[in-house]
Design a protein that fits this description.
The complex is a heterotrimer.
Chain A (H helix, E strand, L loop, with lengths): L1 H6 L38 H23 L4 H23 L7 H25 L29 H8 L1
Chain B lengths: L6 E2 L13 E2 L6 H36 L1 H8 L4 H26 L3 H32 L17 H34 L9 H26 L2
Antiparallel strand pairs in B: 1-2
Helix pairs in contact in B: 1-2, 1-5, 1-6, 2-5, 3-4, 3-6, 4-5, 5-6
Chain C lengths: L6 H6 L15 H5 L4 H29 L10 H37 L7 H20 L16 H5 L4 H28 L12 H33 L12 H34 L7 H14 L15 H29 L8 H24 L1 H7 L3 H31 L5 H27 L14 H31 L46
Helix pairs in contact in C: 3-4, 3-5, 3-16, 4-7, 4-8, 4-9, 4-14, 5-7, 7-8, 8-9, 8-10, 9-10, 9-11, 9-12, 9-14, 10-11, 11-12, 12-14, 12-15, 14-15, 15-16
The chains are: A mainly alpha, B mainly alpha, C mainly alpha.
């Protein structure tokens, strides 16, 4: 069973771009007291980390830049979220080593996002569709000063409808 | 099949001195223990994502309801400070990742250095946050019922600030906790406890710190930029 | 040569004395600082049983008040406190933790052939967090109590109630972390600590159920944490997220709360179902019918359970569109449960059934859970729920599933694994008698409430119209019978500790791994890591009876 886990880590630590590491340390060497193999780390090259940082800085600049251009509220939001997701993916895959890890860890992360999406979207099914059946519920809660008065005829209902998207 | 009793790694063969670390008696190898530890940290990160997620939900709901208020309110946030914090945090993520890498390559000095830099970055983040908050408090831009700023034309700017303070506040708390964890790791690294054979705690704290960064990556555009 | 003894026969020999996890180390300190999952499980057992007795006391109190309309013992405020504390203590201190933290903790590693859970020290931390959370929650008993209902709805809890809302919600916040860490521990344990030969499809179904529960614990509980945090800040700092006067939305609180609390009910029932799968298979001496169906249905319930929380909010002001969506989805979550009930029943067909205490409780579970599940469908139907919401029909439904389901299953599991955990056999006749009394008392108490509810009796009311009095009185008498049965069950188990026969390692002739080690097990569970070559339900089914 431990053999399966071990199989993922037979890669030799990369020497490229790694100027400082303690020289010549034997890994997985013989003579250990316990019966199973050591963990052999997967070491990414330094250049990878630096390039990732550069990409993140670039993406941050793009995010700020695009936000100054007004393309319409939804578009701006979508673009901002899209770029943020790229940054997040980069951080998760490279800084957090998901790319070289067991696939199950990625499944863990993605499933949390799926359930978060369910939470937000189903809640917004409710909050964004109040008042479809009963006009009185169309008002935001704070507007219901006198909820027993039917306000269906009020023109104020129309602007809030436009406001909703 | 190994009949493992309490295990601890002995010295490596002659030449390098390898730090001692404990492998639990229920694990058949250090590798299994490491892999399990990492899985455990990822599961914990899931709980953090869902925890923050609730606040994101509140943000989206109220942004949808009070869009104009949110636009007006968010213009009172200083996006320059937000951007500075973003750069600081991403940089700290880099140094944290390099700290892990240094531990993986037995570079104790570099590990300690990187952790110190990360701690400093975290502190800078909190200082910037302090200035932001004190500015808000001075202007009366407070959450919900405590809001007493004037000069707003929209109805519900206080809802924006409720969400703003909750999100950045909880995030800031996680930064403080992260600093505590980093300090713990720093002390242990300084004692020479980590090596290529055992760096799990550094990686674990690193993963936590990257999550703190991830949350901010979403917080910054949503709160500061998109209007 | 004379006939040699078979392994089966060896496992039936009562064991006498010897070192086991209970006597391995002496002293209170060794227990309080243990990392042995079995000792932690026992400490959880004692703690949750105390919580159960406390919750039960509040139940008897409020049922007593309902004997007649008007004040019998408690006034309106006092009654609010009684049902709130009953609910909060039962849900957060007993039903949610009990099966995973007691039976899950004890059995999971052993069933996997492991020496302990993945993170033993984290396990101990979970226990400490449980005690801390319990302390905060129960501190309300000596301060101003709690009268908001276990659901802490706003604006009553934030703007009106003068009881110890913050202390209790903070306590529940901490209890949530205990639950999360237990779930986290179990997930990693199942993934990483299976002995050689135990593939996923050779896991006892108990493990599948605990695994599915752990998924829910990890994904859902954090949302409860943020909900309670927001509640506390709403009370303390008026942030206004749930306050309509400031622009907030009280229904949003309900979304937040039920996003956790609906999956929470699956945290409560999935371990119970997990127990029943094992109990029925073992005591029918039969391979479980539809192993994969039961295994996957556990995971399906866990996942689909996240899609239906709005069915608690049909009358709250939630939009009609959302209500319709939630009602539609609610029907899907019933399907996997139905699959399980059919499979359990089919398992018994042509089995060699041992009618002992665990099987009695198992049968009770089948009957009571089915009623509970079916009545859930009534409530999931949007237009019907508009009439039944917040009536006693709801109270009856959830007691059928939570008590008739989870608690009965927990008792079944306790009686089933008691010999393994304590090394003692209890008096089976007394155990069966306790089950019969519990069954009768339970139905007296709660079946009546279906009628009360459908005839319009609202829940959480301390007084009522005269026409409801006979049914209420009958229900109260039932609660006394129920209490009696439960006390008898408890006494049966405790008595076994003093005077029960020593248990063999495999008194039931079961096939899963926990029965191959001694009763009670040694601290390391197994002397040698086992190598498993057969499934957990490989009964000899070639001879059809």
């Amino acid at each position: 069973m431990s053999q399966d886990a071990h199989a993922d880590h037979t890669s030799v630590p990369h020497a490229a771009g790694h100027a400082h590491g303690a020289a010549g340390h034997a890994h997985g060497a013989a003579g250990h007291a316990h019966g199973g193999p050591d963990h052999v780390p997967h070491v990414s090259p330094l250049s990878l980390y630096l390039k990732t940082f550069g990409a993140l800085m670039l993406l941050t600049i793009i995010t700020v830049g695009v936000s100054r251009i007004h393309l319409g509220t939804t578009t701006n939001l979508v673009i901002a979220m899209f770029i943020a997701t790229i940054k997040a993916t980069v951080v998760a895959a490279l800084f957090m080593h998901l790319l070289t890890d067991k696939r199950f860890h990625t499944v863990i992360l993605l499933s949390s996002l799926v359930f978060l999406a369910i939470f937000i979207s189903f809640t917004m099914f409710d909050t964004n569709s109040r008042g479809r059946a009963e006009a009185i519920e169309h008002e935001r809660p704070h507007d219901s000063a006198k909820p027993w008065e039917i306000r269906a005829a009020k023109p104020a209902a129309v602007p809030s409808e436009a406001k909703k998207h | 099949m190994s009949s493992a009793t309490a295990l601890s790694a002995e010295q490596a063969p002659s030449g390098e001195r390898s730090p001692d670390f404990h492998v639990g008696h229920h694990w058949d190898s250090a590798d299994s223990q490491f892999e399990a530890g990492r899985m455990g940290v990822w599961l914990f990160l899931v709980t953090e994502i869902l925890f923050f997620g609730g606040l994101f939900c509140a943000f989206f709901v109220f942004r949808s309801w009070y869009f104009d208020s949110f636009v007006e309110a968010h213009s009172h946030l200083d996006w320059h400070m937000g951007a500075v914090n973003t750069v600081v945090l991403i940089f700290s993520s880099l140094t944290m990742a390099l700290a892990v890498r240094s531990a993986q390559t037995n570079n104790k000095a570099r590990t300690v250095q990187m952790l110190v830099v990360t701690l400093v970055c975290a502190a800078i983040f909190l200082v910037v946050k302090y200035f932001e908050y004190s500015h808000k408090i001075h202007d009366g831009l407070l959450p919900g019922g405590l809001f007493h700023a004037t000069g707003f034309v929209t109805d519900h700017p206080q809802m924006f600030f409720s969400v703003y303070f909750m999100m950045t506040g909880v995030h800031g708390l996680h930064v403080v906790i992260g600093m505590g964890l980093m300090l713990w790791i720093l002390i242990r690294a300084n004692r020479g406890e980590f090596s290529q054979r055992y760096y799990a705690p550094v990686e674990g704290v690193g993963l936590y710190w990257h999550l703190v960064d991830l949350v901010w990556i979403y917080l910054f555009p949503l709160l500061y930029l998109v209007g | 040569m004379s006939r040699s003894i078979t392994a089966e026969e060896v496992s039936q020999i009562p064991q006498s004395g010897g070192t086991n996890y209970i006597n391995a180390e002496q002293g209170v300190w060794s227990w309080l600082t243990t990392v042995d999952h079995k000792r932690i499980a026992l400490m959880y057992l004692v703690s949750t049983l105390i919580a159960f007795l406390m919750g039960g006391f509040f139940a008897l109190l409020l049922r007593f008040e309902l004997l007649h309309p008007g004040k019998d013992l408690l006034d309106a405020k006092g009654y609010n406190q009684a049902f709130t504390l009953h609910g909060a203590v039962m849900v957060f201190l007993f039903v949610i933790p009990s099966t995973p933290a007691v039976l899950g903790n004890f059995l999971l590693p052993i069933m996997l052939g492991a020496k302990d859970v993945a993170f033993p020290k984290l396990n101990l931390l979970s226990l400490y967090l449980y005690w801390t959370g319990a302390l905060f929650t129960l501190s309300s008993l000596v301060t101003s109590g709690l009268d908001t209902g276990w659901t802490f709805y706003v604006p009553f809890s934030t703007a009106v109630s003068d009881t110890s809302v913050i202390a209790v919600t903070f306590g529940v916040f901490i209890l949530g972390f205990s639950s999360i860490l237990t779930g986290l521990n179990f997930i990693v344990t199942v993934h990483k600590l299976r002995a050689p030969g135990i593939t996923w499809y050779r896991l006892p179904l108990f493990c599948w159920g605990i695994y599915a529960t752990s998924l829910v614990q990890v994904l859902a509980t954090p949302v409860l944490a943020i909900t309670l945090l927001l509640l506390i800040f709403e009370k303390v700092a008026q942030i206004g997220i749930f306050n309509p006067k400031l622009g907030g939305d009280p229904v949003l609180y309900q979304h937040f709360f039920w996003f956790y609390s609906h999956p929470a009910v699956y945290i409560m029932i999935l371990p119970g179902m997990a127990i029943i799968s094992d109990v029925i298979a073992v005591h029918s001496h039969r391979r479980i019918f539809g192993y994969k169906a039961i295994a996957f249905s556990s995971v399906a319930i866990a996942l689909i359970g996240f899609l239906v929380w709005g069915h608690h909010m049909f009358t709250s002001g939630q939009s009609e569109l959302a209500s319709a969506i939630f009602s539609f989805l609610t029907f899907f979550v019933a399907i996997p449960s139905g699959i399980k009930v059919f499979n359990w029943t089919s398992t018994m067909w042509r089995g060699s059934i041992a009618w002992n205490t665990p099987m009695f409780y198992g049968m009770s579970f089948l009957f009571l859970f089915t009623i509970g599940g079916l009545t859930g469908l009534f409530l999931g139907t949007l237009n019907v729920d508009l009439h039944l919401h917040d009536t006693y029909f709801v109270v009856a439904h959830f007691h059928y599933v939570m008590m008739g389901g989870s608690v009965i299953a927990f008792l079944a599991g306790l009686f089933h694994w008691w010999p393994k955990m304590t090394g003692r056999m209890y008096n089976d006749s007394l155990g069966k008698l306790s089950c019969v009394i519990v069954f009768i008392g339970f139905n007296m108490t709660f079946f009546t409430q279906f009628f009360l509810g459908s005839r319009g009796m609202p829940r959480r009311y301390y007084t009522y119209l005269d026409q409801f009095q006979p049914l209420h009185a009958f229900s109260t008498y039932g609660s006394w019978v129920l209490g009696l049965g439960l006390i008898l069950g408890l006494v049966t188990l405790l008595a076994s500790l003093k005077s029960g026969a020593r248990a063999p390692s495999n008194p039931w002739g079961a096939k899963s791994l926990e029965w191959e080690t001694q009763s009670p097990p040694i601290t390391e569970n197994f002397k040698r890591t086992p190598l498993v070559t057969h499934g957990p339900y490989d009964y000899d089914t070639t001879e059809d009876k």
